[in-house]
Amino acid sequence: MGIVRKSVWWRSFASGALGLASLLGWQGASFKLEHLLKKAIRETGLDDFGPEHFLEPLKILIKDFSTHNQTDTLGRVVYSQMILTSLKNRLNLYHVLKKYPEVEKVPIRAPLFVIGLPRTGTTFLQGLLSQVSTLRPLQNWETHQLPVPQCLATTKQVQQQIKTAQAQIDGVNRLSPEFIKAHELGTMEPEECNPFLMSSFYALLFCQLVYVPDYFQYVFASNFGDSYTLHKKHLQALSLNREEKTWFLKGPAHIASLAQLLTVYPDARIVFTHRNPLESLPSMASLTAMIRMVCLPMQDSKLIGPGMVEHLKQMLEVGYQTRDTWPLGATPFLDITYKKLVSNPVDTVHQILNHFHIPTPDGLGEGLKSYLAQRKQHRHGIHKYTLDEYDLDEAELLEKFKRESDLANG
User: Fold this and answer.
1) Which residues partner with 79 through β-bridges?
2) What are the mean pLDDT values of the chain's consecutive 10-residue runs (410 residues total)?
3) Cβ proximity of 115 and 71 under 8 Å
4) Cβ atoms of 176 and 291 closer than 8 Å
5) Which residue of 28, 46, 52, 364 pairs with 91 in a disulfide if CB–CB is 3.0 to 4.6 A?
6) What are the boundaries of each domain within the chain?
7) Is 378 left (phi over 0), alpha (psi -120 to 50) or beta?
8) Are strands 112-116 and 4-6 parallel, antiparallel or unpaired?
9) In the prediction, which pLDDT does 375 show?
């Protein structure tokens, strides 16, 4: 057994109170499918979830969570809320599509995606690119789908979505206080586009908070369902009657579904980030332990690493396969090393813009320098981790991730 990590001291009291409430009839910790669907309908006032094929992966996800995780009442509440948020996003999206059919005619031209194994600098690069005025970042609060296109939203609706997003961030930071050292969240900060995929219920981020191995393999076997079709519709709802800019998005999970991404966005431009796996993988294991602390009251650190390595290896192999079979004359890819990104971030941004022929706005250099001055590394504390803590073997990692290691050092 490795280091047993325990959650915050007050968790047992909070979970006990919620457990008592459940005994008295409160259903906030219920994982019954019918209850979750009815609750989403009640909270949105909408009842059209769109095509019902999302129900099968949702059922598998719920069963997997209950089978493979030893959690408490609070953990059940948190994970059910995560599912509920995705159900509400889905209801709001299909309401928008039905009431405003012009949304699906909005073009999403040549979006820029930053992908790579987790902890390879994708978040840092995303923040840098958010300073490029010719690009359109996705902000955290925008991942909560409004029941109208954003251009028609009232101030009250926007403020409510921002409030909801902040409440979720506060919840994560309270239940896992160390998390901010590894990954800072903010309602107005650039965010991964995973919630758009999650509204389809074919999304690997559901596997981040807890251990759901059967669901993970089901999503792969299903070729990620219609997740990118819905992803695009979310972007269209945000883009209606807005100034057209190049969307730039980020998510390590896109590696596993690169073929599906490029099917929906055939003109997409892809930035691949690469870092020494002896650095990125233990960092990811540590981050996984931190984020799982939100739903799980305690965990053995040595059980995290091996499973994470196999999942990431599978994801990366699928991504490389898509890259290797893509027509050479039309390759949309650019490789960026973590080493170069950290040592020369301004030049890295210019390299990306030049490579993809994206206009460079005036004053970008000064803007990037100002951003970097405000975003010093380790400003919330140092994120510490080791290979041994998560039962990771150096030789094994170098063998399994040889191509990634070569690219990171190249």
Assistant:
1) none
2) 73 94 92 96 98 98 95 95 97 98 98 96 96 96 98 97 96 92 92 97 94 96 97 98 96 96 95 96 93 90 89 95 80 92 96 94 93 82 87 95 92
3) no
4) yes
5) 46
6) 36-409
7) left
8) unpaired
9) 81
Whether the pTM exceeds 0.85: the reply is yes
- Both tokens of 194, joined, read 């995973």
Beta-carbon-side half-sphere exposure of residue 166 (alpha carbons within 13 Å): 7
Residue corresponding to tokens 């990171």 = 408
Candidates 198, 220, 193; CA nearest to 209 is 198
> Can you say whether the dihedral through the CA atoms of 24, 70, 310, 124 is positive or negative?
positive
Q: Which of 239, 250, 130, 144 is nearest to 199 (CA)?
A: 144
Tell me how far the alpha carbon of residue 284 is from its chain's centroid: 13
**CATH architecture, domain 36-409:** 3-Layer(aba) Sandwich (3.40)
Q: Which residue has the tokens 């690469």?
A: 274
For 221, list phi and psi in degrees, rounded to 5: -65, -25
Residues paired with 116 in a beta bridge: 273
As given in the structure block, the two tokens for residue 164 are 């909801």
Alpha-helical runs (H) found in 100-190:
122-129, 155-175, 179-182
Residues β-bridged to residue 246: 135
Of residues 215, 172, 257, 248, the one with CA closest to residue 57 = 215
Interatomic CA distance for residues 341 and 318, integer angstroms: 25
How far apart CA 61 and CA 59 sit, in angstroms, is 5
**Residue 161, CA distances (Å) to 56, 171, 314 in order:** 28, 15, 35
3-class state of residue 108 by DSSP: coil
299 phi, psi to nearest 5 deg: -160, 150
Tokens at residue 15, please? 């979970």
The residues facing 274 across adjacent strands are: 337
- Report residue 344: phi and psi, to 5°: -145, 70
Identify the pLDDT of residue 48. 98
* Cα distances (Å, whole numbers) of residue 255 to 148, 251, 260, 305, 378: 31, 8, 10, 19, 27
Where are the strands (E) in 197-250, listed by range?
Answer: 246-250
In whole angstroms, give the CA distance from residue 182 to residue 175.
15
Q: Phi, psi (5° rounding) for residue 274?
A: -135, 135
